[in-house]
Every structure is written in C-alpha cells, then in structure tokens.
C-alpha cells in the first residue's frame, strides 16, 4: 500500500519524523505559544482527505484554512502550475503576462455588478490593506468601521480591523478603526427575537455609530459578507442591502471581505450574491478575495474595484504595490481553478451539499445532542455552536479561549478520522466544495460520535 504521493507508510513515517524534528528546532509558528506546541504532520493529501505523519487518513472537514475549495491536489490545477513553471516562473508586476490577464478576466466576470478591475496581492490580509488604502485615498477620510465578531487578517491594518481577540495584543487605539456590532440573532446585542428585528436594529445601531463618529470622517465600512472564523453568522435578509444604502447616504465606501466566503464556499461564486433581491443587487465598492480563488495552491489574493474607485487613480498614481502582484504561478493556478469549478459545476455542488445533506444532517445532530446550541450556514460553510447549557446558551468554551470539553471533543473526532476547524466553542463544518454525499455522511457520522463527548460536559 502506498500514499497518494507514492510513499510507503514506512517511508512516510520516516519523512514525517524528520520533518517534525526540524520543525520544532527551526520553525516559528503563527498564533501559537511555541514551547507547548505539538503540530500535526501532514505527509500527503488527495481530494477531501489528508494523511498524518503516522499514515492515518483523515477526512478534511476544515479545508485546511477554509481555502482548499477545489480539494487537495486537483489534477487540472497541478498540471497548470507545472505548465506555467516550464513556460514563465516569474515576472515583475509592471509587465503583462497572460496568466494574470486571463485570471483578471475570469474573476471580473464573476464578481457582482461592475467590479471589473483587479489588483492582485499575495493573500487576503494584504488585499484588505490595499482595499482600505484605496478607500482612504478615494474619500480623503481615515476612519474605517468594522464589526466586533470578524477576522480580516494578520497584517497591521487588517488585524486592527479584526474584531476577535487576536486584535488585542496588536491594538494601540491609533489605527483609525471603530468597531460596531453586526447582526447575530443567536447572541443578539439588540434584544431581537426575529431576523427582521435583528436586521432593523443592527442597521439602526450602525447608523447611530456613523452619526456619533461623524460621517465626514469615515472612509469605509468593511464587512465579511458572511463572517467566517468569527462564527459563520449568515446576515439576516435586508441587512447587507441596508449597509449599502447607508454607505450611499453618507458617501462611505463599502468593502466586502470575501476572502473566506468567496469562490463557491457558500454555494455561489461570492457570498454577497445571496443577499440581492428583485429590488436591488447588493454590490460593494471594493471586494477582497484570496483562499478559494486558487485553493491556496500558490499564494494569491486581490481586490476587485468598482469603476468610480478605479477612476480616482486614472491620472493619480496609486501609491502601492507588491513584488509578486499577479505572480504567474499563482494566477495560472487561479485560471485552472476557476475553469475547473465552472466545468465541473463545483459551486453548484457546494450549494447542493449544503441544502440537501449538510444542513439537514447537522440539524439532526442538533436534535440529538444537548451540547449543540445552534447550527447555521450556507453551502459548505457551517458552524456548530456548542454550549454547556441550552437554556442560558453558556458556551462550551469562553470567548477568546478554549476548554477541556472542546479539546476532548476535537480529539475524539481526530482519533476517529475527522479533521475539524475549531474556534472557541464552535466546530466549523467547512469541507472542500468538491465533497460528495458519501463523504459528508462519513464526516457527520464521526462528528455525531464526537458530540457525545461534548454532551458529557452539559448541565
């Protein structure tokens, strides 16, 4: 028996042992206390599965960093990278290359409205950095409004925009960021009892925040169309349209962060497409993307720009750039990814799996397990909120922290062959958009077993 990379289990274990030894000696890991860290080794991956350093196969319900939308080692994308490497590995951003041009065309065809100019970056955080810079230069204003329950990246501006506790050690109160509460009915800040109330009151809160901060000081409002790491809280109907209307009213740039939610994750090309209706399309002024644009096979991100923002820089140089903007290997991977997603109807598959299999399956688990407070999501983008007490909604781990209950639950899932994305008191069901019905049911069966561990910590 061999792994997908051709190694025997014995050779894979030897390779993994050497990799782990060197990692602990030399690699400095992100978001971690280094001394107590025991990272998992991955030696191979294929489709919706990864193999750990001991040769165990795990179903990847995390899509790694919620970015392998097309699955692991998709042959068309691997071949495109190989072909591009043989043709032109790299070129400076000032020069035209066909991979970047074609990637820009394909992305612009799929972005909402008239967002048809693309600035390429190396990932999601620097896409957010540049979107904010564009908004500030376009408006001549400085402040940016962002929600508390959000994640926008780890670079200086992006981490200050972020609402979750990773911001705290980096926040000195001088980044020009003002935080406000977005809608989240399960843990409402507005004493709402319905989605309609939550949307209306959240919009009133945002408008009051704009008024108190001074509309003439605010460059942008940035929102994840569907917040990801913070909890996959799908906005109630009318909320994003209302944000668009408020931005128009006060001359504020609306930035949609689609880094995690975009490129098929929610069952549409972009999550914001769910929130248009017969009365109005919800189109942001700037849209940031990364992750699923090429499933992370080569680092890539970008900003899709509306014409009125792009026109600001028609005769005025845009003061920003990156050595690897539009890198040929990364954009060739994006071209292959987008074409494969189109040809193989992968976005449609994500929608079908969410509506027909994942959503109903998770709701069945919620009915059986007292530790499940709520399930919510779209496509292959779902959160399972775990609680100690359903009546009080006390979370199974504190905001910004973890707990033995969560640690034991995740360990039980991994021991049974399931790799989960976890944040505080939630497990996220975020497999590749390519996942099939049988694989979903396999993962939900393992999650069902793991939730019995969580149930043991309920009141």
Please state the CA-atom Rg, rounded to the nearest Å. Answer: 22 Å
Work out the number of β strands.
16
Shape: globular
SSE string, helix = H, strand = E?
A: HEEEHHHEHEHEHEHEEEHHHEEEHEEEH
The overall pLDDT, averaged over residues, is 97
Through-space gap between termini? 46 Å
Summed up, the helix count is 13
Our estimate of the beta-strand percent is 15-25%
Structural class by secondary-structure content:
alpha/beta
For the largest beta sheet, what order do the strands appear in spatially?
Answer: 4-10-9-8-7-5-6
What is the topological layout?
Elements: H1 9-26, E1 42-46, E2 49-52, E3 57-60, H2 63-66, H3 75-87, H4 98-110, E4 117-121, H5 124-139, E5 143-147, H6 156-161, E6 177-180, H7 195-213, E7 218-224, H8 239-250, E8 253-257, E9 286-289, E10 301-305, H9 307-310, H10 328-343, H11 346-368, E11 372-378, E12 381-389, E13 394-395, H12 404-415, E14 418-419, E15 421-423, E16 426-429, H13 437-455
Parallel strand pairs: 3-14, 5-6, 5-7, 7-8, 8-9
Antiparallel strand pairs: 1-2, 2-3, 4-10, 9-10, 11-12, 12-13, 12-16, 15-16
Helix pairs in contact: 3-10, 4-10, 7-8, 11-13, 12-13
């Amino acid at each position: 028996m061999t792994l997908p990379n051709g190694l025997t289990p014995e050779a894979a274990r030897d390779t993994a042992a050497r990799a782990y030894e060197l990692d602990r000696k030399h690699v400095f890991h992100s978001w971690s206390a280094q001394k107590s860290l025991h990272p998992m080794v991955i030696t191979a991956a294929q489709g919706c599965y990864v193999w750990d350093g001991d040769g165990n196969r795990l179903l990847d319900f995390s899509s790694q960093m919620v970015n392998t939308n097309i699955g692991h080692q998709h042959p068309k994308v691997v071949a495109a990278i190989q072909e591009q490497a043989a043709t032109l590995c790299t070129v400076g951003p000032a020069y035209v290359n066909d991979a970047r041009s074609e990637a820009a065309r394909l992305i612009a065809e799929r972005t909402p409205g008239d967002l048809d100019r693309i600035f390429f970056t190396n990932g999601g955080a620097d896409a957010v950095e540049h979107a904010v810079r564009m908004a500030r230069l376009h408006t001549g204003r400085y402040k940016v409004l962002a929600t508390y329950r959000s994640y926008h990246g780890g670079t200086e501006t992006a981490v200050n925009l972020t609402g979750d506790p990773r911001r705290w050690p980096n926040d000195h109160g001088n980044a020009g960021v003002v935080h406000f509460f977005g809608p989240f009915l399960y843990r409402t800040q507005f004493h709402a009892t319905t989605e309609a109330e939550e949307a209306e009151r959240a919009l009133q809160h945002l408008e009051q925040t704009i008024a108190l901060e001074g509309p003439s000081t605010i460059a942008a409002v940035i929102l994840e169309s569907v917040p990801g790491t913070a909890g996959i809280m799908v906005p109630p109907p009318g909320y994003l349209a209302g944000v668009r209307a408020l931005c128009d009213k006060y001359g504020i740039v609306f930035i949609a962060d689609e880094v995690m939610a975009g490129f098929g994750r929610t069952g549409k090309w972009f999550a914001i497409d769910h929130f248009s209706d017969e009365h109005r399309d919800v189109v942001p002024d700037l849209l940031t993307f990364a992750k699923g644009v090429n499933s992370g096979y080569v680092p890539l991100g970008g900003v899709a720009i509306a014409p009125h923002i792009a026109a600001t820089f028609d005769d005025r140089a845009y003061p920003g750039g990156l050595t690897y903007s539009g890198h040929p290997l990364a954009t060739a991977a994006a071209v292959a990814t987008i074409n494969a997603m189109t040809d193989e109807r992968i976005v449609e598959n994500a929608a079908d799996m969410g509506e027909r299999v994942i959503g109903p399956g998770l709701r069945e688990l919620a009915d059986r397990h007292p530790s499940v407070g709520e399930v919510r999501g779209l496509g292959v983008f779902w959160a399972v909120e775990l609680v100690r007490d359903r009546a009080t909604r006390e979370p199974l781990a504190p905001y910004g922290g973890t707990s033995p209950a969560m640690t034991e639950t995740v360990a039980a899932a991994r021991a049974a062959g399931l790799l989960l994305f976890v944040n505080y008191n939630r497990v996220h069901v975020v497999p590749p958009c390519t996942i099939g019905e049988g694989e979903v049911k396999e993962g939900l069966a393992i999650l069902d077993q793991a939730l019995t561990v969580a149930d043991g910590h309920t009141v």
